[in-house]
Amino acid sequence: MAGKTGRFAIIEQFLADGIDHMFGNPGTVEQGFLDVLSEYPNFKYILTLQETVALAIADGYTRATKKPTVVQLHSGVGLGNGIGMLYQAKRGHAPLVVINGEAGIRYDAMDAQMAAQLVEMARPVTKWATRVVDPTSLLRVLRRAIKIAATPPMGPVFVCLPMDVLDALQLEDVIPTSLPSTRALPESQHLLQAAQLLKDAQRPMIIMGDGVATSAAQEELTRVAEILGAEVWGADSSEVNMSAAHPLFKGQLGHMFGEHSRAITTQADAVLICGTYVFPEVFPALSEVFARDAKVVHIDLDAYEIAKNFPVDLGLVSDPKATLARLATALQTSMNADQKAAAQTRITRHAAEKEQEKAHQDEANQARRDTMPLHASQFMEELAAQLPSDAVIFDEALTTSPDLVHYLPPTQTGSYFLTRGGSLGVGLPGALGLKLAHPDKTVIGFSGDGGSMYTIQALWTAAHHKIGAKFVICNNHSYELLKLNIQQYWRERDLPEREFPTSFELTDPAIRFDELAQALGVQSARVETPEQIAPAIRQALATDDPFLIELIITNEVPDHIVHKAVNKYGIA
Fold first, then answer.
1. Are strands 44-47 and 96-102 parallel, antiparallel or unpaired?
2. Coil, helix or strand for 389?
């Protein structure tokens, strides 16, 4: 480092921490450190055409690698472009280290072109935000940022790097960041108390979230569920926290409406919450989310989320993996024969119910087979037949996600990543991040026609860097989710159903995603008929290059009673 300036030092600090990718869109005030990247051939800069795309690719990459990931944004306008996706990263607990260039401290008094309060802009959508104001603390601040991002509860951090700070001679040593261990355990009496609260339950329930995956506690959580015979529901659960094929896994609680969740959670007489907050809906229930006499135990490394909105009988600020392992032992040794037999009976009942639900869904899908426009289930069934067993999926299919996971249930840790945080447009770039993390695996990103248009520029990055991810855009020519949500709005307010707002439709003109992909350098195929499904999937999987399938599907909304005329695109 002797004699080098900060623009070299920051790259060497990242490499010292095992960070060898930077995702960004270049700008003039960052040109100093971008100019030195050629001197570090092991450090890869992934060029994107818009800041939202850079953040979303990094989000997918950091979710797959489970380590801090660097994003470069440009000044105030670049940060402004990325704010929505930074919110996504914060809600999704992504350990992104966002560095943002700035003209220089010496220009502070000038209020010149592109001047902005960058730290204040970033603070609401990050875990921590700061500005380096002295060259002697440049690396110290970067190490602090990396540590904060990577320490549970993880989240994005923001560091403003003025150009004159980076151009100053750097005297700090480059040393790896010290990351604290968070494998904390509760005291023995609290584990015994948790077991006592749960073991007598006749209707036990576990609510799990991504804190389980962060802690690598999937096996331990499954063991506790099996000992209790507890049904398991996901909340803020976007990864494989438990195999979806397990008899006790019941699915996801509501994302939009708290009433959907409350109808489920109030059925339990004992609830174990692990690795999530309660509850991550847009319109959450304000009270009585659990039965009046239900016992509630909450395990999480994020003390802020325990009892944040609703009281619990026992809150344990501890590591899910180690805590669940010891809880399983405490339950096994304290439960009597009758309690263990009752748990096995519940497992058998849940398994039979799950098989019955699957059979009903298979029957319904068969009845829709070969209809036009296509139903997504037929495509997903064929995809499941052709896809390699170790494939990795990024799911932003939204209204077609149920069809996707029906035929491709997420069972293996690290094989499935669901959109989280609320921002649209993560499906295409998220898949690029996964592919960069898993270059030897087949990676497929699913998105809708609406969501994909937020970040369609990601296809150019795929072609430019030869990132061989596959993409499926489920095109129903509408914002289908908004149609489902407004139906709920009508029901809640006792309003009659009517034609959906025209602002929910994405027609006139129709978007040709196959042609858009080709214009951005990505091979593509358009699937409109049953006969086109299998050949398009074979074509996509046969190439090492990126490939996009535009899947034209029905936009029929279940139970919508208003007559719908067929438009000129043949979509009812």
1. unpaired
2. coil
Summarised one tens digit per residue, pLDDT across range 68-91 is 999 999 999 999 999 999 999 999
Q: What is the pLDDT of residue 561?
A: 60
3-state class of 46 per DSSP? Answer: strand
Angle at 397 between CA 391 and CA 400, to 5 degrees: 105
Confidence check: pLDDT of 114 > 90: no
Extract the runs of DSSP E, i.e. beta strands, from 13-63: 21-24, 44-47
**Alpha-helical regions (H) of 411-479:** 427-437, 449-452, 458-464
- Give the pLDDT score at 565: 33
Six token digits for residue 111 = 């209020």
Do residues 40 and 66 touch, judged by C-beta distance below 8 A? no
Cis check: omega of the bond before 373, within 30 degrees of 0: yes
Enumerate the H helices of 200-334 as residue ranges: 211-214, 218-228, 258-265, 320-334
**CA–CA separation, 49 and 428 (whole Å):** 14
Angle, helices 320-334/188-199, rounded to nearest 10 degrees: 60
The dihedral over CA atoms of 55, 56, 57, 61, expressed in degrees to the nearest 10, equals: 90
Q: Residue 248: pLDDT band by 50, 70, 90 thresholds?
A: very high
Cis peptide, bond prior to residue 249, ω within 30 of zero:
no
Q: Report helix, strand or coil for 248.
A: coil
Which is it for the CA torsion 409, 410, 416, 420, positive or negative? positive
Q: Report the alpha-carbon distance of residue 290 to residue 266 in Å, rounded.
A: 4
Report all structural domains of the chain as residue ranges with CATH numbers, in order of start.
Answer: 6-167 (3.40.50.970), 188-351 (3.40.50.1220), 369-569 (3.40.50.970)
- As given in the structure block, the two tokens for residue 212 are 């389980």
Q: Which amino acid belongs to residue 273?
A: I
In the block, residue with structure tokens 């034609």: 499
End-to-end Cα distance, the chain: 65
- Cα 293 from Cα 182, distance rounded (Å): 33
Structure-token pair, residue 330? 């405490």
Q: Quick check: pTM over 0.90?
A: yes
Q: Residue 118 — very low, low, confident or very high, per pLDDT cuts 50/70/90?
A: very high
* Cβ 237 vs Cβ 252: under 8 Å: yes
